[in-house]
Amino acid sequence: MSMRRISTLALLMLTLGSATAAIAVPNPLPPETIAQNQRPNRPGGKEGAMFEKLNLSADQKQKMQAVRDRYKDQISQRMQAVRQARQELQTMMSGTASASQIRDKNTQISGLKKQLDDVRFESMLAMRDILTPAQRTQLAELMKQRRETAKNRMQNGSKPQ
C-alpha cells in the first residue's frame, strides 16, 4: 500500500472511530437524554460536520446513512459490553478477586475491544467505498487539520470542546 492510501485509511479510522473516547470515559448522561438532544435524520457530532464539508451527493448521503444504520446496533452493543466489563473489573480490583480472575477479566475486555474495533473498521471501509477519490483526499486534509487543532489544544493546556 502506498503511504497516501495508508494515511487516508488511518484518517478515516480516526474519523469513524471517534467514539473511542466514549468507551474510555463513560457518558454520565443516560441514553434517553442523549437521544433527546440529537436532531433526527442528521449525523451527530464532529463526524457529521466533517462529512458535511465533503459536499456529499444525495445518493452518497443516503448510502452513508444506510451504513450507519447497518452498523449502529453492533457498535452500540459492543460498546456497552466493554463498559460493563470495565465496571466489573473496577469492582474486582477493589474487592477480593484473585490476580488470576482480574487478569481473565482484562483479557475479556481486550477481546471485546478488538471486536468493537473490527466492527468500526468494517463500517469505516463501507463508508470509504462511498467517497470519491477527491472526497477521500479532502477528508484526509480535514482530519489533518483536526489533529493539529487537537494537538495545539493539548499543548496549550486547554480542554477540547
UniProtKB/TrEMBL annotation:
Keyword check for Signal, yes or no. yes
The record's InterPro entries line, in alphabetical order, gives:
LTXXQ
Reply yes or no: does the keyword Signal apply.
yes
Q: Where is the signal peptide?
A: 1-21
Q: Which domain of life is it from?
A: Bacteria
Keywords of the record: Signal
Pfam families with a match to the protein in the record: LTXXQ
Protein name, UniProt field: Spy/CpxP family protein refolding chaperone
**Organism field:** Microcoleus anatoxicus PTRS2
